[in-house]
Amino acid sequence: MNGRAISRFTAGERLFHWVYFVAFLTLATTGAFLYLPWFSFAIGESGETSRLLHRLFALLLLAVPILTLIVSPKEFRADLREGLTWRAEDRRALRVLLTRYYWTGDPAGLPPQGKFTAGQKLNIGLQILAFAVMAVTGLLLWFGRGLLPVGLLRWSLILHGGAAVAATCFVLVHIYMVTLLPMTNQAIASMFLGTVSEEHALTHHPKWYEALVRRRMSRAERRG
User: What is 10-195's CATH topology?
Assistant: First the structure.
């Protein structure tokens, strides 16, 4: 097995990831300032700045999927479809990942994975759910004051904060796994360079790698 680089993510896919990441971290930080009263940033001019930044980056976060559909529509739709498609082997893989592989590195019983592992699919699904809850409740809180019942706004505030805390926990776990966890930390290179090693592709995403090889062979045959 050689160490040649295998293209995994396009520039458009990587742009989506990093803009979303920066916007999310800014929202999590400014949101914490506004939710937690002991932060001095939540009062006076600092509080107004935090609110302004929170709203500006909320708009950016909402715009990210739209911008990605414009910049890289084919890849974005394919990634979304694959990330939300759960097969029988994904459910089996998730059990192995959560109960053994992430803790011990033992891959015994782990079914071959596609472009996204079952763990990555879980993160994608949970992030999309949290994103939807935060988007709807955030818009209600932003534009609904004085127009909507107080009870609805109160529940929106609770759900908004709960979804934000859950999403932040998912992001922290994701950061840990791509930086410190030995079994998965090689993946971070793909979000900087767009590539992974052939060994990593075959070890962690064999179904995706094999499909990629078949497509390349098919194209070569057509050209020949």
Answer: Fumarate Reductase Cytochrome B subunit (1.20.950)
